[in-house]
Amino acid sequence: MNLFRFLGDLSHLLAIILLLLKIWKSRSCAGISGKSQVLFAVVFTARYLDLFTNYISLYNTCMKVKALPHLLAPPAGGGAGG
Questions:
Q1: Does this UniProt record's set of keywords contain Membrane (predicted)?
Q2: Residue 32 DSSP one-character state
Q3: Could you report how far apart the first and last alpha carbons of the chain are, in Å?
Q4: Residue 82 lies in a domain
Q5: Which of 14, 24, 69, 75 has the CB geometry, 3.0–4.6 Å to 29, for a possible disulfide?
């Protein structure tokens, strides 16, 4: 396994979790662009589509399965603002 890929995946997953915790705790997504989050979700969902066609390793599959729900989770409060 490539150590740099592993560290990159962990830091990416941590960043997503921290972002979701910030949104959940503040009950607001003020300061976070909705369009940016949609594009982020589209890019990483497209990147992870090979999960259904190519088996690389158990680690790779587990990281993708754990990351996708976090990428697609709706923001707290429904994003209506206010």
A1: yes
A2: S
A3: 46
A4: no
A5: 75
- For 32, phi then psi, to 5°, come to -115, 120
Distance CA 22, CA 28 (A): 8
User: What single-letter amino acid sits at 16?
Assistant: I
Structural domain of 20: 3-74
Retrieve residue 80's tokens. Answer: 């209506």
Per-residue pLDDT of the chain (82 residues; tens, 9 = 90+): 677 777 777 777 787 788 788 888 888 777 777 777 777 777 777 777 777 888 888 888 888 888 788 777 765 555 444 4
- Report the greatest alpha carbon distance in the chain: 46
For residue 50, is it within any domain? yes
Give the Cα separation of 7 and 15 in Å (integer). Answer: 12
Q: Is the separation of the CB atoms in 13 and 66 below 8 Å?
A: yes
What's the domain count of the chain?
A: 1
Residues in the chain, overall count? 82
